[in-house]
Amino acid sequence: MIREFKYRGETFRVNAHGIDGHEEVFIMHLVDGEEEGEISIDRMTEENDTSAPISAICQMLCDKLIIENSIDVADPNGAFAWVEVEALREVLPTRSDKAAH
Fold first, then answer.
1. Coil, strand, or helix at residue 101?
2. Within its chain, how far is the Cα of 13 from the centroid?
3. Rounded to two decimals, what is the model's pTM?
4. Closest CA to 26 of 61, 59, 64
5. Which of 18, 44, 54, 85 could form a Cys-Cys staple with 23, CB 3.0–4.6 A?
6. Residue 80 contacts by C-beta under 8 Å, 6 or more apart in sequence?
């Protein structure tokens, strides 16, 4: 999964690979569309709450990144919200997929 989200008035991108609770999660801080900082966690090997939703992990990592990089956030009380983006392509089922149903 690759998605952008807003948190504390800033824009971030998450890149998560794996199954729920056992992902590798990379967070990038975006400034004017450019990556300005990164932090990650390997939920398969590093201590964490494997039942926590990915949004909670994103917030936890963002809080660490904000402190580590001394980011002066735009809105210290800004809530977490996924950024809705327009789909650029839609993958349609193939004929063999349709025949299987």
1. coil
2. 5
3. 0.80
4. 61
5. 18
6. 5, 6, 7, 55, 58, 59
